[in-house]
Amino acid sequence: MRRTKALPAIALVASASLVLGACGGGGGGSSDANGGDATVAEMAVARGESADGYTAPETKQSDQIVVSTDKAFTAYNNATEDANQSYNTFALVLTQPGAHILNGNNKYSVNKDVMESVEVTSKSPQVVTWKLKKGVSWSDGEAWDCDDFYMAWFTQSNSSKKADGSKYFKPAGSTGYDLMTGECKDDQTFVGSFADPYPDYIGLFNNDVLPAHILEKNAGVADITKLNKDSAAADIQKAADFWNEKWNGFTAALMPGAGPYVLTAFEPNQSVTLERNPKWVGKPGGPSKIVLKAVPDPVAQAQALENGEVAVNSMAQPDANAATKLKGLSAQGITFGAGPGLSFEHFDIQMKHPVLSKEEIRKAFFMCVKRQDIIDKLISEVQADAKPLGSLIFFPKDEGYKDLYAEKAKGDAVASKKILSDAGWTQGADGVFAKDGVRASFRISHTDIPRRKQTVELVQGQCKEAGIEIKDDTDPNFLDERVSQGDYDVALFAWSGGPTKSDKKSIYETGGGQNWQNLTVPAADEAFKSAVSQTSIADSLKYFQKADEEIANAYGSLPLFQMPNMWAFKGLDRVYFQSYYGALWNANEWQTK
């Protein structure tokens, strides 16, 4: 999932990580489309999908399309713990193909343009064989082949460690890859042998397959497939230095594409440009050029669409004012869509913070937050039936969902004050509780997204009544620079991911690649370990439920709400905001009206 910075927020689609966040997804929703236009349900399914998988269809080609989103693209390697975020995923989905595509109904289809098959070739022990299609190449002419899969596995498996136990590579997550031993049988065949069963293997190699030949050439590595945990430390370090650091920003020679599009231009903090890939093995189609432009203000995005400056609003951040404006523009041919996604807005508490490390402070903070009030004021205009989220692992419609936070976060200032009083805290003349010279005061850190600043303002008022002082810490670079360093008291952001649950492991397990809050819950660690090694997804549910309960009882993270998807467009036949990949997931199929 993506930081929507994936589970995206927004860390990897399904298995290795989440991404920091922004987005949402899922079937259902609403649209103001005029009669004759595609319905939301139709938009959620790619035209090229069939029972056998996905193959890019014949599509009428069109000229440049400008798409707005909330924040800018920052890195070509979105699998590292520092770079991983939804806004990179949005730009990379059509340039870095994977084994599967994920549609708006959260259904995986084998990407038949680049894959022959993905099969379990042995059940005990579990062995999965990824068979790549011959003739697929990167835009620089080099083959897209097993070397690239091997590098994705090796860099994210944590199989190679330094003498002191630290990691060479710094992936956002390793779940699934860390259970596997990978091997290239030939140029088109990657075989993964699992030490324990891993039912979510379908989520591997979907948004993290990078060009191994680029690393080999520039890092001085002769053959990435010859590297393993027993290789010379200097050789592994050379590969790690490049993989961890050299695919940030944009350098054309280092960043080819193997999908329908390739990145061709980059304006830091502003935009990234995609153009059709002349080496693409599939059917060409869609816009000749896509400019993905960062516009932090959602209302400004809506205004740009109304003015014809952009053709698509791909809004990872739902905004009530923008939704109201867009809903009123249907007569101008603008289609608005919204619906519950697979991202969740939440507070993460830094467990090493001198104040928040005290359980009674965390409990009192949870109790004073009025989540429904936040939703009513900031989200209901986008999705009228939105409710507080009661789980960090499950969404309300998931099998296994239980509301674990209704009693912990009642929005009751009186009860919050009692928690602190019972623990020996006393209210000072300024109304703030204190004990042993320590005040019940901390920051909430977040990016400069208007809705998040409004959230903090609401919580400040709610918790002031409970004798808790909250300071606003707005930082435009919070997701890009600080959150992965654990540089916060309380972090406000969203995780975005795919439909599987295993991607939560890297966030909440002790020492997990995305556990930036330093949460340690041994019982949850054991539950996660059991969950990801069951023979079926159904068998894993009770263990994910156990992990969910244990994390809730630790008062480490407070879920606020399931993030709605929100998007709008004009002049195109059909656009849909997919949970993890944003609006561009099938932009190669877009056709102008």
Automatic annotation (TrEMBL):
<dbReference type="InterPro" id="IPR000914">
    <property type="entry name" value="SBP_5_dom"/>
</dbReference>
<feature type="signal peptide">
    <location>
        <begin position="1"/>
        <end position="21"/>
    </location>
</feature>
<feature type="domain" description="Solute-binding protein family 5">
    <location>
        <begin position="112"/>
        <end position="513"/>
    </location>
</feature>
<keyword id="KW-0732">Signal</keyword>
<dbReference type="InterPro" id="IPR030678">
    <property type="entry name" value="Peptide/Ni-bd"/>
</dbReference>
<dbReference type="InterPro" id="IPR039424">
    <property type="entry name" value="SBP_5"/>
</dbReference>
<dbReference type="GO" id="GO:1904680">
    <property type="term" value="F:peptide transmembrane transporter activity"/>
</dbReference>
<dbReference type="GO" id="GO:0015833">
    <property type="term" value="P:peptide transport"/>
</dbReference>
<dbReference type="GO" id="GO:0042597">
    <property type="term" value="C:periplasmic space"/>
</dbReference>
<dbReference type="Pfam" id="PF00496">
    <property type="entry name" value="SBP_bac_5"/>
</dbReference>
<protein>
    <submittedName>
        <fullName>Peptide/nickel transport system substrate-binding protein</fullName>
    </submittedName>
</protein>
<dbReference type="GO" id="GO:0043190">
    <property type="term" value="C:ATP-binding cassette (ABC) transporter complex"/>
</dbReference>
